[in-house]
Amino acid sequence: MTSHTQINTFLAKMKWIPLLGILLVATACQHLFDEEDITQNPNAVNDVDMRTLLSGTMLGVGYLHQDTDVRIAALWTRHINGLARAHQGYSQYIVSSTNFSWNQLYPVAGQARLLQEKAEEAGESRIQGIGKVLEALAIAKATALWGDVPYLQAFQPVAFPTPVYDSQSEVYDQLLLLLDEAIVNLSANTGLSLGTNDFFFGGDNTLWTEAAYTLKARLHLHRGQYQAAIDNALQGLSATEHDMLVPHGNSQGVNIYLNHDFFAITRAGDTGFDGAFFPELLQARISGENTKTNESALYDHFITNGLTGTNSLDPNTVDGAFVADAPHPVLTYYENQLILAESYARTDQLTQAVSALNTVRQGLQSGYINGRTFSDTNRQYDAYVMADFAPSGLANSQDYQEPQLAILYEIIAQRYIVLLMQYESFNDYRRLATASPSVELDIPLSTGTRRPQRFIYPQEQVNTNPNTPSPLPDQYQVLPIFE
User: Fold this and answer.
1) For the chain, which domains are there?
2) Prediction pTM value
């Protein structure tokens, strides 16, 4: 596999932000890749070679997993709290159509589609499969956060200048079909050498295939299709070394971790862990009666001045999760195993559920999370046994009478922790409200009596696409997939 040092060197040469500026055509989705504009543009994406287009699309996908959308999702799940300026308002669910944009999301998905077309023309089946996984990652974010979105008519500006909005259920169906196609494409063993141009997996077909299966498992979990989630997760990311991580470096404006830039440089003090639910949950698990678990080291990895300090609970940008060159997760082995664990638990396969949960605990015991190692001081994740979830068991922190519920609570709590600063946690927040059997974390509302359920369609779409739903749904309307 390609080394982290090689990848960071490559990213420094590519210059993260300028490359995005060239490759991301910031237009409403109906104007993506308009042929006349492309031919008149000296930086036109059709003139970019396939390897560079691949890298640029990956950079775009990496950005989409660290942007303002993701921070709003983290605020609404109370991972972090808004303390000043716009993010204080976001944390109080104060948003409008002007707070959201598809000006990077759809161009990234469009680049992935263009990559597939160029790869098909060149007979590069493997790159075509990679492009399909990247497209699925972008559109999965769109539909999970906004519901009905343009998809079947998207990226076809001549035929469909104002694409219709497809139902969320149809988009999920299409994404699953796309990922099945990707898996077939990725079975090809020949083609261009990708090397550092593929800074996720170095051109390794096996790892891209595993990532496709993990994404499929995630989508099935959203729909409550637990056996399908199990079947796909069993073929998903099979080791922590296979995590799909966005690498970063130490050069501001070039390859720095966007969360570090936000927390420590450009918006220091706007958000933090003060008043959030995340530190409360970790503290409860540290001070509780579970003698098999000590998450103090993980707490300090995420939060400075947390357990022993008296100052604000700031994101750890000094020596922890949010340092300048920290990788950011897109899809991980831990998420894959916790999909397995929850799906097994919901289908009453409790022994298998505990086993899958224990694989994550084993990884945490080694100190690994998202490409980094946290301290071995006060770090303990002993394996659970079924007796730990009995009514008086040490892992039954909520005093459930049924072991199934106790197991589910522990899995859900572990997901909330390892999915920090990932929008997938907002998907959990919504789907767990209606999943059966009912088990949720007691995440308090920031204000009012209604929990936020979705993002609002961007104003640019309201202005340019007459197919945008009207009246405009607000942030409290439940999406069909989570009803």
Assistant:
1) 1-67+104-203 (1.25.40), 236-267+274-443 (no CATH)
2) 0.92
